[in-house]
């Protein structure tokens, strides 16, 4: 059994790791940590875990000592020293935050106002989007696990970009997220009466995920890709829907487009390419690690419209992190993640 530690287990992403790894057949949670709830049971924080997982929250040092793979689900900016400690002790470190995601320190400074403290760790960190970078993930010691928008949007666009059928400029990622995406901390914007029955964009064309999505897209293009990214807050608990618009470089039929996506995602269990006429819906991926993609052509405007849906807590966070762990430890990628999304 793989010995797993979870730092930040009481947050939404950490609690989702607890949920999924508790039943993973080849991994066991050996330690979890929390600052606010140290000494308390995780099942006292989340009553759904009573009698299933009643582990006591310890501190982060205990987790690093006991585990061989450490997941960190902390606010941005707290993972660099933790990664160093794990690396020095020959542990695998999987970071659900953004500290290791951007390869360019300049971009990190611009968007996160932080510094790269251990540059060598940033050089060796692998961006953990398995459908694109599986081979690099296999030997990684540090994984930068992508977040929700930054998983969903590239999954919708990369096959078309890689095949050279869409432009590298003028792409729009119009995304909607459930409220769990904002984490467990309370804020006025997430207050029920102010959120429920409303719907609005935020950080329009200035969200910190913009350079991260561009970084992934650019790795499949022959020049820098620039996008307009507009996230919206959807008054549901879970789910991300990315509706991506991209100018077509040439005339293409639906059959040709579909073939490009089918070939690119051949054998990818977690990618479900929907039939013509169907649309991706967050409803159908809830609680699962699937990404549903539907393809549409707007011939009048000469645009590709690619829509992708994921569960932000699973494929957008904990599930993808476990997928990365499975790859690193040589397990079948699906292990512990063969979850059937509920029908209603
Ligand atoms: N929610 C989502 O959909 C996604 C989240 N992520 C990323 O995962 C990470 C966690 O997000 P999420 O779970 O939503 O956030 P939460 O706010 O729900 O949880 C954050 C966790 O970090 C702990 N924490 C807070 N401050 C500190 C601190 N100063 N030192 C140590 N621990 C601290 C918190 O609790 P405690 O006080 O108990 O230690 C809690 O366990 C973030 O980097 C986020 O961007 C990535 C993809 C999707
Ligand atoms: C709804 C909401 O607030 N979402 C978060 C993103 C959550 C996420 O994906 O976190 P990462 O930053 O780790 O990628 C936001 O917009 O900041």
TrEMBL record:
Residues 3-140 form the Semialdehyde dehydrogenase NAD-binding domain. InterPro entries: AGPR, AGPR_AS, AGPR_dimerisation_dom, AGPR_type-1, NAD(P)-bd_dom_sf, Semialdehyde_DH_NAD-bd. The active site is at 148. Its EC number is 1.2.1.38. Keywords: Amino-acid biosynthesis, Arginine biosynthesis, Cytoplasm, NADP, Oxidoreductase. GO terms for molecular function: N-acetyl-gamma-glutamyl-phosphate reductase activity. It comes from the Bacteria. It holds the Pfam family Semialdhyde_dh. It catalyses: N-acetyl-L-glutamate 5-semialdehyde + phosphate + NADP(+) = N-acetyl-L-glutamyl 5-phosphate + NADPH + H(+). It is found in: Cytoplasm. Gene3D superfamilies: Dihydrodipicolinate Reductase, domain 2, NAD(P)-binding Rossmann-like Domain. The keyword Cytoplasm applies. Belongs to the NAGSA dehydrogenase family. Type 1 subfamily. This is N-acetyl-gamma-glutamyl-phosphate reductase. It comes from Ruminococcoides intestinihominis. The lineage of its organism: Bacteria, Bacillati, Bacillota, Clostridia, Eubacteriales. The gene is argC.
